[in-house]
Amino acid sequence: MASTADFRNGLVIEFNGDLHVIVQFQHVKPGKGPAFVRTKLKSLKTGRVIDNTFSSGTKVNVARVERRPYQYLYRDDMGYYFMHLETFEQIHVNEEVIDSPEFLKEGQNVEVVIHADTDTVLSVELPQFVVVEVTYTEPGLRGDTANNALKQAKIETGSTIMVPLFINVGDKIRIDTGNKSYIERAKS
Questions:
Q1: Coil/strand/helix, residue 184
Q2: pLDDT per residue as tens digits for the range 24-45
Q3: Which CATH number covers residue 85?
Q4: pTM of the full predicted structure?
């Protein structure tokens, strides 16, 4: 058990029968009335972010979670397979718990969040930025740069992303996995 005084970003709590991670919190002491804590909680099952207000001093159950380093191996009809980098143990994960599965490349390192008490996989988190190669894109038209024009490009993982006109087939680009957008050309 913990109280609202123990809140910090990244803390995983049990709330409404589900596990939630605290994304943001703020202690508020109004001029009148008791103090309270405003929070933004992200569900580890659904990924939905909800706002909730706790009275100051409220007790909550803290869930023990571990972040373990894994490497992506391959995908088949059953799901995705990962290998622990220290014990070489392999696990099978469904697509629903992976953040941005369209950017997974074989051999890529990820962090797997595991509920320590039940030993179940809660989520698979990719690095914030990944470098991928463009496998197909239409050539950009000369002089068509009036308003930061973008075009579609297919990347080596099979996904499609919007990129600037100067990107060509074979270029390596850096992608933000959080908002699934082009950042820059990768340095070779």
A1: strand
A2: 999 999 988 899 999 999 888 7
A3: 2.40.50.140
A4: 0.76
User: How many Å separate Cα 53 from the centre of its chain?
Assistant: 25
Start-to-end CA distance of the chain, whole Å, equals 50
Q: Which of 125, 146, 165 is the last residue of a domain?
A: 125
Asked if 70 and 98 sit in the same domain, the reply is yes
pLDDT by residue (tens digit) across 126-185? 999 999 999 999 887 666 666 778 889 999 989 999 998 888 899 999 999 888 899 999
Q: Which amino acid is at 49?
A: V
Domain boundary among 125, 143, 177: 125
Contact 11, 44 (CB under 8 A): no
**Domain shared by 148 and 117, yes or no:** no
Are residues 56 and 108 located together in one domain of the fold? no
Q: Which domain holds residue 180?
A: 129-185
34-84, pLDDT tens digit by residue?
Answer: 999 999 998 887 778 899 999 988 999 998 888 899 999 999 998 999 999
Q: What phi and psi, each to the nearest 5 degrees, are found at residue 71?
A: -120, 135
Strands 181-185 and 65-76: what pairing?
unpaired
The vertex-75 CA angle with 71 and 79, nearest 5°, equals 100
CATH of the domain at 54: 2.30.30.30
Total structural domains in the chain?
3
Collapsing DSSP to helix, strand or coil, 41 comes out as strand
